[in-house]
Amino acid sequence: MRHRLETAAKKGMLADSAMIAHGRGEAYDYLLGERTIPSAHFATQVALHTLKNAQHPVLSVNGNVVALAGDEILLLADQIKCPIEVNIFYRTPERMDALLSDLNERKQRLGLDVDILGSHPDASIPGLKGPRAKCESRGILASDVLLVPLEDGDRCEALVAMGKTVIVIDLNPLSRSAQRGTITIVDELSRCLENMLSMETNGLPTASEYHHSETLQAALNEIVNGMKNKFSSE
Ligand code: PTJ
Known about the structure:
Layout: H1 2-10, H2 18-31, H3 38-52, E1 57-61, H4 63-80, E2 84-86, H5 93-110, E3 116-117, E4 123-124, E5 134-135, E6 145-149, H6 153-161, E7 165-169, H7 176-180, E8 183-185, H8 189-198, H9 212-228
Parallel strand pairs: 1-2, 1-6, 2-3, 6-7, 7-8
Antiparallel strand pairs: 4-5
Helix pairs in contact: 1-4, 4-5, 4-8
């Protein structure tokens, strides 16, 4: 995963703070035992059901997401039949170009027919200032359900305030995005996407069966209980 980020950084795809964000994720992943915990597996099932049943689902991606799991996000968009929108916090024309061409190369290699948006922002997310508010009217603005892996807290809040169902993937159950999202999957991004791609899609649980605060508490409990028992059996 670090190597993927190094390669992406050389191509100009990443924010300067991408490695810091990744390091925070790695730390939480250690504490969670580098596995998909049961509450995250359930939240992933609910998220997949919600995406599949949305009117206008969109997968929002940033630099870290394209670098770590560009193929998987394209495969998921293909499965759900929805667009991907490149929507980055530290927006520059150079980074947008690098991310859009990386995704388009992957799409061609995989032979997929997925709409990749982000190059023509003609709308903005209310409540946010500056370039990070930019989005496309036929993408994020029109969406009813959004997948936002590794999202920044402000943007997550602004999207929820727009009335969207926001599905967050974040290893830190205490982050503002994890707390403010509608459905939060406390899992590592690429592991979560692989789970979604291989999941049985019949009989998935619905959003009415998902309990947000219990899901976040379950992740914290895994961390705390895992610590308690760590050395007691040795
Ligand atoms: O490409 P940009 O400009 O949109 O910038 C992207 C980053 C990720 C740099 C930016 O959004 C950022 O600074 O994010 P934060 O505020 O550091 O938040 C990242 C969150 O993602 C943290 O809570 C991490 O624990 C979590 N995280 C990091 N890597 C992973 C992860 N969660 C799941 N899987 C990961 N691989």
